[in-house]
């Protein structure tokens, strides 16, 4: 019996040590990226543009080039889809000020996954434990174990990081064949905690003179996306409620533009998406000027 007690005590102590002391390499990387982006945003003297989303944003947009060509400081706030919609919007909320412009480039799963997801839990565990109140005890146990597994499997990839927070010079492809399959969507689009957070965020921005646009992520093209009920219903929802840039299939790319995930483009894909966004920004400005006349 005493041995059982010792084993239980060891398990409890190990769990407490992990909870209070373990630093996930993946989350330390996210924290580093966030700090780089935040510093660049803070240095802005005038209005700035924030590109906000998951890691697809990190790969898709050369924000140094966008800053140079538009003469407006543009910050790549691409982080990780596993943080959830709410976390990513909180980041934008923290760093935007009146007169700024935000482009939300949101991975499809952000609309239907939990608004504060598995990596948000791990971030709060490491840096802001008071925010763990967002999760039920059941969710905390689930995310704690889920992150433990992911931390054991984590392998850090290093890329050149632009001063504005974008990955650059991502060449070639490291795309595993088992990843070459379509994303899985719900049967139908519907209101979620994440979409409600998005609606509140856009209302706040409108009240604070912050312009918000919503666009779609760059992702590997599959024929079935053209007939996906979920994508069509998401499109209709966005068009009815937000200023939308482009169509979903405008940013679906061939395999030669993919690096290591269906959401991660390489240098070739980044160049095309960046150039397209520059054209779209110019078109938006022309429409705004026309409305002002």
Report on the structure:
- The strands form four sheets. This protein has a five-stranded parallel β-sheet with strand order 2-1-3-6-8. Strands 4-5 form a two-stranded antiparallel ribbon.
- β4 (160-161) and β5 (167-168) form a beta hairpin.
- α4 (63-70) packs parallel to α10, α5 runs parallel beside α8 (193-207) and α6 packs across α7.
- The chain contains ten helices and eleven strands.
- Helices cover 49% and strands 13% of the residues.
- The model has no long low-confidence stretch (mean pLDDT 92).
- The protein has one domain: SGNH hydrolase (Rossmann fold, 3-Layer(aba) Sandwich), CATH 3.40.50.
- With 293 residues, it is an alpha/beta fold.
Summarize the structure.
This protein is α/β, with parallel strands linked by helices and 293 residues long.
Question: How many helix segments?
Answer: 10
User: Considering the protein shown, what is the CATH homologous superfamily?
Assistant: SGNH hydrolase
Strand order of the largest sheet: 2-1-3-6-8
Low-pLDDT stretches are none
Q: In what range is the share of β-strand residues?
A: 5-15%
- Determine the N-to-C terminus distance: 84 Å
Mean pLDDT: 92
| Cα-based radius of gyration, to the nearest Å | 20 Å
Alpha-beta classification: alpha/beta
Describe the main β-sheet briefly.
5 strands, parallel
Keywords: Coiled coil, Membrane, Transmembrane, Transmembrane helix
Protein name: SGNH/GDSL hydrolase family protein
Coiled coil: 264-291
Transmembrane segments: 6-22
């Amino acid at each position: 019996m005493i041995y059982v007690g010792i084993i239980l005590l060891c398990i409890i102590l190990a769990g407490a040590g992990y909870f209070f002391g373990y630093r996930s390499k993946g989350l330390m990387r996210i924290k580093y990226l966030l700090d780089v982006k935040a510093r660049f945003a803070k240095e802005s003297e005038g209005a700035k543009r924030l590109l906000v989303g998951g890691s697809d944003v990190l790969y898709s947009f050369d924000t140094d080039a966008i800053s140079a060509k538009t003469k407006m400081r543009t910050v790549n706030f691409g982080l990780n889809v596993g943080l959830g919609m709410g976390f990513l919007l909180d980041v934008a909320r923290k760093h935007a000020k009146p007169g700024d412009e935000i482009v939300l480039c949101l991975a499809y799963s952000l609309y239907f996954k939990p608004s504060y997801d598995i990596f948000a839990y791990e971030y709060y565990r490491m840096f802001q434990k008071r925010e763990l109140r967002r999760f039920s005890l059941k969710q905390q146990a689930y995310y704690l174990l889920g992150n433990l597994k992911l931390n054991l499997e984590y392998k850090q990839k290093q890329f050149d990081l632009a001063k504005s927070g974008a990955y650059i010079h991502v060449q070639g492809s490291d795309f595993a064949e088992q990843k070459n399959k379509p994303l899985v969507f719900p049967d139908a689009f519907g209101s979620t905690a994440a979409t409600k957070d998005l609606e509140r965020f856009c209302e706040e921005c409108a009240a604070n003179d912050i312009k918000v646009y919503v666009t779609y992520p760059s992702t590997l093209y599959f024929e079935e996306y053209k007939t996906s009920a979920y994508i069509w219903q998401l499109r209709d929802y966005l068009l009815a409620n937000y200023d939308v840039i482009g169509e979903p299939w405008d940013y679906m790319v061939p395999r030669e533009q993919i690096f290591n995930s269906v959401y991660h483009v390489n240098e070739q894909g980044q160049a095309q998406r960046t150039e397209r966004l520059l054209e779209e920004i110019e078109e938006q400005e022309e429409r705004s000027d026309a409305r002002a006349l």
